[in-house]
């Protein structure tokens, strides 16, 4: 359960104000069909995070425990620093696939937007940190994405305008820094 709780908490916090959350807001404003948008976010996240967790699991089998501890610990610290840099998305840079329905367009757009994103990198690192809990990591990171993005789809700008994003980013950075230090000092 530890891997599930840590993964969902870390990703839910990391996703606040992230470019994929901003993408969810844009999709909700453009299509005004929340259920297919939420389903597309879910599908894209499961696929993307399963791939990322597979990479993390692969790393645990190909690196020695000391190298893995340093890579995971330093990666958590790097994600902590990255959390302090706010994401921006311009509507011009988001090219939604044409000719697709809302579900397919959301799935493709979210899958592509999540490539190389903080939460995808965090999923790789979490899977390497919890090598015996692959399914819990994927479920937890997916749950974290849904916790952050579903309200954005249904409530939109009213929610994000009221949240203190700078404090949420700082809290998320602190969480990743603590996981990095814990991994380096106690793993």
Polypeptide structure, described:
The structure is a single chain. This protein is mainly alpha-helical and 187 residues long. It has helices spanning 2-15, 19-31, 34-62, 65-83, 102-114, 118-129, 134-154, 157-160, 165-186.
Strand content: under 5%
Secondary structure class reads mainly alpha
Helix % is over 70%
Oligomer: single chain
Radius of gyration, Cα only, in angstroms? 16 Å
Distance between the termini: 18 Å
Number of strands: 0
Instruction: Write the element-wise H/E pattern from the N-terminal end onward.
Output: HHHHHHHHH
General form = globular
* Number of H/I helices: 9
User: Mind summarizing the main beta sheet?
Assistant: none
Poorly predicted runs: none
Mean pLDDT: 83
Provide a concise account of the structure shown.
With 187 residues, the protein is an all-alpha fold.
Would you spell out the secondary-structure blueprint of this structure?
Elements: H1 2-15, H2 19-31, H3 34-62, H4 65-83, H5 102-114, H6 118-129, H7 134-154, H8 157-160, H9 165-186
Which descriptors would you attach to this protein?
mainly alpha; 187 residues; single chain
């Amino acid at each position: 359960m530890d891997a599930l709780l840590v993964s969902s908490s870390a990703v839910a916090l990391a996703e606040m104000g992230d470019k994929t959350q901003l993408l969810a807001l844009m999709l909700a404003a453009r299509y005004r069909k929340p259920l297919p948008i939420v389903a597309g976010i879910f599908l894209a996240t499961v696929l993307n995070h399963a791939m990322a967790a597979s990479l993390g699991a692969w790393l645990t089998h190909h690196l020695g425990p000391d190298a893995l501890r340093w890579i995971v610990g330093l990666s958590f610290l790097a994600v902590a620093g990255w959390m302090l840099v706010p994401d921006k998305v311009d509507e011009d840079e988001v090219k939604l696939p044409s000719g697709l329905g809302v579900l397919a367009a959301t799935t493709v757009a979210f899958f592509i937007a999540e490539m190389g994103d903080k939460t995808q990198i965090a999923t790789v690192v979490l899977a390497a940190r919890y090598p015996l809990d692959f399914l819990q990591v994927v479920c937890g990171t997916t749950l974290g994405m849904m916790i952050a993005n579903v309200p954005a789809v249904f409530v939109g700008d009213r929610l994000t305008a009221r949240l203190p994003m700078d404090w949420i980013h700082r809290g998320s950075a602190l969480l990743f820094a603590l996981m990095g230090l814990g991994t380096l000092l106690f793993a």
